[in-house]
DNA sequence: CATTTTTATGCAGAGACTGCAAAAATGCAT
DNA sequence: ATGCATTTTTGCAGTCTCTGCATAAAAATG
């Protein structure tokens, strides 16, 4: 008798690939949930890519995924959420990963490492390529996706607050987490615009280095 | 025969206070537009503050502002946009202000100065106090407002690209602008949480100083 | 196979937002 | 003042997102 919704799946985001690609884990139920979620995501991303985003309705997505329109909202809280490249699992792990970094690491280095892992996990997802295309063709959508970044930011705050022995409301902790997430966003954006000439990690490393140097100009490219 | 909307006001955001508080500038039309906009904003912010945001409909707002519901969307593109503390005028000026800063200033200093001006202008607006209350009681709304920050960010990118003689797509320029905006957001948030114990500029200065120091811990409070 | 728990679905409805065209208000020149 | 042009307001119809609720379908369990 949990106080949560009676209708929604108990775990809207089954872990598709936490440690490795454990595709066939869990019972039938879990497998079907993963399948449904992925079907919705793939249908949505493909439709977005082909027809633009405004032109695609939730009903369209569900039709292509062979799922009831009502069910869509059991998996995603909004139409655009299908574009979020990570799930609750990843986010929940983030705080722990921050704690797990070597103690001698500077905060920015730890942040870079953790976010680097997160984004690489996302890039290994089955829909990343199309997602990237969609976001490149429809930059307005980045706004919507950024909301999801906020959840990651909160996780970072949690992790660094503990790691540094400070409160979650600590200004430095907040600034650190927010800046790190912003750096991730800028890196992803630049990487996308550059037609994948350099690796994602390259941009990430370069930008974190800029942060370490106090954002002074002309130090790097 | 401009190709723009036939229905919307030509200038949805008349400049309420560009240089000084020029309340009575322009013809009757301009004055009425300002009045309508402000009426909507005040009604909305007050209702949000008293009843929460989800409980207030656009129709409610319009009823209190004595304006047709349809008209609301001539002034704001979404229900939450009434909470944005600056108008198009401010944003358009931003790029120019970046160019206007003394040439010897470091980028971060210029950014701090420009954003400091922007936020102070916003704080002088008639609805700032209530807006702050609303955002404190309903942190979810910060998400929606952040979208507006993105417009400021774009303006910063423009300004710094020119100031530094780089392209708008330059990675450093992007990172600089994005980080500056993020710092503004964190500063505002911390300032709000602290029940106005310190001045806004204090938080802003402190956080920009942290950036200059490469976000190393323990350097400041 | 009966029971319990979880998920999928259908239905109705609230509410945000848009396009369109008529009406009202304002600006302007005579 | 009066007539004409421009801009803003409004009403209306309609689309679409998203939610609550009740029920059917599915699957885990014993």
Automatic annotation (TrEMBL), chains A, B:
| Spans annotated as Disordered | 1-35
What PROSITE patterns is this protein classified in?
Answer: HTH_TETR_2
Q: Look up the DNA-binding region in the UniProt entry and give its residue ranges.
A: 57-76
In the UniProt record, the signal sequence range is none
Q: Ranges of Low complexity compositional bias?
A: 1-16
Offer an example of a GO molecular function term for this protein: transcription cis-regulatory region binding
Segments spanning the bilayer are: none
Q: Which UniProt keywords apply?
A: DNA-binding, Transcription, Transcription regulation
Which superkingdom? Bacteria
Q: Does the keyword S-adenosyl-L-methionine apply?
A: no
Keyword Transcription among record annotations: yes
Q: Short name of one Pfam family for this protein?
A: TetR_C_14
Q: Boundaries of each HTH tetR-type domain copy?
A: 34-94
The name this protein goes by in its record: Transcriptional regulator, TetR family
